[in-house]
């Protein structure tokens, strides 16, 4: 008797379509990035401002530094200075008085970059309690 030949089927492991999954992941990422509202992130930043019904006084306690950013110069307590002097002043003032507060007034026509450079000097010298005003 002839032996019947049986065919053996070879089974392969099922494969998942990784390319399709990666495409879906990237599409979801793009969707969430586009629909992200950055105003929500900035809205949670703590800012202390005076109440609108109160009159804002311009008197500054004697130990508080009043720093003004103008279009073409910087002022410390009304005196024209440059950023190197501000750096030196903050280092010596911080060591001598232990003060870490300042009021920064930014004039309306002042360049944004000038304000950022000044804030970098304040941060470098660990002046952490800053009040910001604009005119």
Q: Would you kindly provide a written description of the structure presented here, covering whatever features stand out?
A:
- The protein is an alpha/beta fold and 135 residues long.
- It is built from 4 helices and 5 strands.
- The chain has a 5-stranded mixed β-sheet.
- Strand 1 and strand 2 form a beta hairpin.
- The mean pLDDT is 78.
**Whole-angstrom Rg:** 31 Å
Helix content: 25-40%
Spatial strand sequence of the major β-sheet: 3-2-1-4-5
Strand content: 15-25%
The N- and C-terminal alpha carbons lie at a distance of 108 Å
Q: Which structural class is indicated by helix and strand composition?
A: alpha/beta
Tell me how many strands there are: 5
Number of DSSP helices? Answer: 4
Low-confidence stretches: none
Calculate the mean pLDDT score and round it.
78
């Amino acid at each position: 008797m002839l032996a019947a030949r049986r065919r053996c089927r070879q089974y392969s492991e099922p494969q998942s379509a990784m390319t399709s999954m990666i495409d879906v992941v990237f599409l979801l990422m793009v969707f969430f990035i586009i629909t992200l509202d950055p105003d929500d992130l900035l809205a949670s930043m703590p800012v202390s401002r005076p109440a609108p019904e109160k009159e804002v006084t311009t008197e500054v306690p004697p130990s508080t530094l009043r720093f003004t950013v103008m279009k073409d110069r910087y002022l410390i307590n009304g005196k024209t200075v440059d950023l190197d002097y501000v750096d030196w002043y903050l280092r010596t003032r911080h060591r001598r008085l232990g003060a870490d507060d300042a009021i920064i007034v930014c004039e309306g026509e002042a360049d944004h970059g000038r304000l950022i450079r000044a804030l970098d000097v304040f941060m470098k010298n660990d002046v952490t309690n800053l009040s910001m005003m604009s005119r």
